[in-house]
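Need tokens for this chain, all 245 residues.
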Amino acid sequence: MDKLEETSKTYENESRKEPFWVFGYGSLCWNPGFEYQQSVTGYVKGFSRRFWQGNTTHRGTESKPGRVATLIEDKEGVTWGKAFLISAENNAALPYLSNRECQLGGYRTYTVNFQPRPSFLPSTSSDKRDAVLYIAVPENRHWLGAAPLPEIAKQILECRGSSGSNVEYLLRLADFMREEIPEALDEHLFSLERLVRKFAAEMKICLKSIMETKEEKEVAEAKAVVPSYQFASRVPEKKLRCVNM
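Here are the structure tokens for all 245 residues:
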């Protein structure tokens, strides 16, 4: 297994002299929320992604917690995602991540070896670099753990939080994997996606409306209330006739 070291709880307050990497395997892949110098897709070995972590803020509530991704140790596992290079002068990124992932999400900070995705040349061991990683562990209060995939899929369909629906989280992550890392295999993720789409179809839930961002919905609503005159020119003009009285 690659190196996994728990980092100090005051990690985000340390002064850093060099740029550093943060590896994302969940919503960070498509919504990092902080400034970065570079981003590259790649993977970490020794882990598998699972929707076993509960979420009561961004994708659920206290009464109906959603399910989001975490990593579990797996000797044969490989987890693909995206790493972000953060400058040493960026004093906002780590406090932001600490609040988003640790204080609200229930994750802990670790350091792992990240392997960038090979491009045209074969990768070598020298390509590896240390990356900050956030992992939820069973001891945290939000932990939900394993469950049959149909149960997890139905729970994801039912939950929503301040950042949107739990379904959006799952589908955007699946889309990211399919579009940016098509060679990556993640049976857990894509099985959940298939089940969610199947149950949504059976329940007549419109996934397109769920996936729309707040900005897209506002634009659609604005278009709905603004009258359109695009067909006005097609209406034949009425001719006035003079009538002798």
